[in-house]
Every structure is written in structure tokens, then in C-alpha cells.
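Support request, please re-run this one:
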Amino acid sequence: MEQEKHPIRVSVSEAARLFGVDPHTVRRALSREELRYIVVQGRYKINFESLLSWSQNRTSVKNKFNQKGLGQYVEQWKIKNKKYSPDPKIITPIK
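Re-run finished. Output below.
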């Protein structure tokens, strides 16, 4: 996998809020080396891509994400304004 030049990183508390879990859950994942991170000024900065992967591979975290985290808002994010949605008639399939 190619290294990202500027990956998105979040703190433990941000990760917990985004994924609807307790900060201790995130810290346990860090101690088990289930997440990629760096330390900046004594604070963990967790790679967001590794958080997504971790959350989707753990049923309890995935459920909390959908109930208490960002996942609860997904239905609201669907774009209904056709002005901003691509017209299927003008999209040419990639061959």
C-alpha cells in the first residue's frame, strides 16, 4: 500500500466521539496495536483510515458507530437535490 503524504489523524477523544465508543475502548485498541498512530507532544494522533478499518472489523464498535457515532447521520447526508447529483444519462461508463 502506498504511504499517504498527509493522512487524517484524530485524537483519542475525537476518535471516541466519531465512532460512538468510550475513550478506554480506543486506548485498548492502541495498546493492542490495532490502530496506526503517531505521538505528537505526548498525545496520540490516530490514523483515521486505520480507525475505519478497525471499526468495521469489530461488530460491537461497528454497531456503536451506527447507533451513537457518525453512522447515525448517514441517511441525512444523502443528496436529494438533483442539481448536485450526476445525471445517469450523461455519465459514460469506464471500460
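The radius of gyration is 17 Å. The chain has one domain: 9-77.
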